[in-house]
Design a protein that fits this description.
3 domains; binds L-homoserine; 6-stranded parallel sheet; 12-stranded mixed sheet; Dihydrodipicolinate Reductase, domain 2; 14 helices; 450 residues; Alpha-Beta Plaits; alpha/beta; 27% strand; binds NADPH dihydro-nicotinamide-adenine-dinucleotide phosphate; Rossmann fold
């Protein structure tokens, strides 16, 4: 039997996600009330334009452009506007007025998370953000609650649907990056300005959120190493598959010890990487997301599903609504965000991983031996080399010093054992300067192997 008063819910934004949240709250209100033990009343929906078309039917009398008044009368405020301002101002107002807040806004959390979490703790409220990473996929609550007793070592995440869709099309349909991006835009996956997806900014925001949560340490967005997929070519994707890999844009968050300084800390990075075809992440196709996680006791876990989409993301928001409403019914302060470990944030140079380097070289005796010597001189151990008869495109990222146009060339694909970023960078620089190397055409990290 429901005895608690109705809880007043304010929704800010009625776009792709907000309109679906409004519709689910209105349609499933009774069922949700049964789960919570209190009625859930959607008291208003703040938008910019009262006349804009909506993808679901929201009663006109609920729409308002007066977000401030709406927030001040609410028990729970859901922010689905996006961007930094006025979303930040509205969440601060909501927390200051004693409401619990729910947001899907990764850009805001990655840049102003500490300010919001601190205020929530001060006022005894709770900030929920399950939808901010991985859309419909439950990953925030598993990290915060289910794995709270374990030690997470590493996270490998495909956390941007647009880039995964693009790389998948390049791999399976033979598209160029431009063709695949056009298809992603047509299907509504890519943002109007896809720079945030293509250049890895969106994934870096999600990496900052995941790393902060997993390692109980605030990881500022500006300390997340970021490389996008703009320079990935069709040739790299084809060559990866031939070698038993697929190219994915990965968010890698790990706890490690810097080999140069001995300092233990957290490193978060986003970049394209080769993933073995046998790894579960290689099977993540289209615009789907997945988070593969390694923990001390739990071992390997993978969370997989729709990383975006209005109704899919609304599912995660509704889960937060139920949690927030239950907390109101039960009472007591919100649970503060845990940053007790406060580990140092390590730079990308602290990373030790495997690499695959593709070179165009002069096809004459002794060249392979010279290349092998260059690797060993810089402390990088070669694991495998494959050679094919090459052709000189002259468009490699790094033309070698001894480039003779008339000379026959070969393509070498060299896989390394684990090496430091620094040793690898020195090796690549030496290869670029070598008179037997025409061009260094690709350097990719290899992740998901021992
Ligand atoms: P949309 O751009 O589709 O919708 C934004 C909504 O906010 C619109 O209804 C707009 O009003 C309203 N709005 C904008 N400015 C104001 C303002 N100043 N005051 C009041 N309302 C305002 O965004 P999405 O629904 O796609 O995204 C919402 C959030 O969810 C973002 O943080 C996004 O990163 C996140 N997210 C989105 C996913 C997706 O698949 N779309 C997936 C995961 C997270 P109006 O309609 O009148 O213009
Ligand atoms: N642009 C994002 C993506 C939306 O492609 O994954 C979900 O955050």
């Amino acid at each position: 039997m429901i005895e608690y008063r109705n809880l007043r819910i304010a929704l800010l934004g009625a776009g792709a996600v907000g309109s679906q949240v409004a519709s689910l709250l209105l349609e499933h209100g009774d069922e949700l009330a049964g789960r919570v033990g209190a009625g859930l009343e959607l008291v208003g929906v703040a938008v910019r334009d009262l006349e804009a078309p909506r993808s679901t039917a929201i009663p006109q009398q609920l729409l308002t452009t007066d977000a401030h008044s709406l927030i001040l009368g609410a028990d729970i405020v859901i922010e689905l506007i996006g961007g930094i301002e006025p979303a930040r101002e509205y969440l601060l107002l909501a927390l200051n007025s004693g409401a619990d807040v729910i947001t899907a806004n990764k850009a805001l959390l990655a840049t102003h998370g500490p300010e919001l979490f601190e205020l929530a703790e001060q006022v005894g409220a709770q900030l929920y953000y399950e939808a901010a990473v991985g859309g419909a996929i439950p990953i925030i609550r598993p990290l915060r609650d289910s794995l709270a007793g374990d030690r997470v070592h590493r996270i490998l995440g495909i956390v941007n649907g647009t880039t995964n869709y693009i790389l998948d099309r390049m791999d399976l349909e033979g598209d160029s990056l431009e063709e695949a991006l056009a298809a992603a835009t047509e299907l509504g996956y890519a943002e109007a300005d896809p720079t945030s997806d293509i250049e890895g900014y969106d994934a870096a925001q999600k990496a900052a959120i995941l790393a902060s949560l997993a390692f109980h340490t605030t990881v500022p967005l500006e300390l997340v190493h970021r490389e996008g997929i703009a320079s990935i070519t069709h040739e790299q994707v084809v060559s990866a598959r031939k070698a038993g890999f697929v190219v994915k844009l990965l968010a890698v968050c790990e706890r490690l010890t810097d080999p140069a300084t001995g300092v233990e800390g957290v490193c978060a990075r986003v970049h394209p990487a080769l993933v073995p075809l046998t790894h579960p992440l290689a099977a993540v196709h289209g615009a789907n997301n997945a988070v593969f996680l390694e923990a001390e006791a739990a071992g390997s876990l993978m969370f997989y599903g729709a990383g975006a989409g209005g109704i899919q993301t609304a599912s995660a928001v509704l889960g937060d609504v139920v949690s927030a409403a239950r907390r109101h019914v039960i009472g007591g302060p919100g649970v503060a965000e845990s940053t007790h470990a406060d580990l140092p944030i390590l730079p990308i140079s602290s990373v030790v991983t495997r690499y695959q380097i593709t070179l165009t070289v002069s096809d004459r005796p002794g060249v392979l031996a010279q290349i092998a010597t260059l690797f060993s001189t810089h402390g990088v151990s070669v694991e495998a080399v494959t050679q094919s008869v090459g052709h000189d495109t002259g468009h490699g990222p790094s033309a070698g010093a001894g480039h003779h146009l008339s000379e026959p060339t070969a393509t070498l694909v060299i896989g390394t054992h684990q090496a430091t970023e620094g040793a690898l960078a020195d090796t690549v620089a030496a290869l670029g300067a070598s008179d037997v190397v025409t061009a260094v055409t690709s350097v990719l990290r290899v992740e998901g192997t021992e």
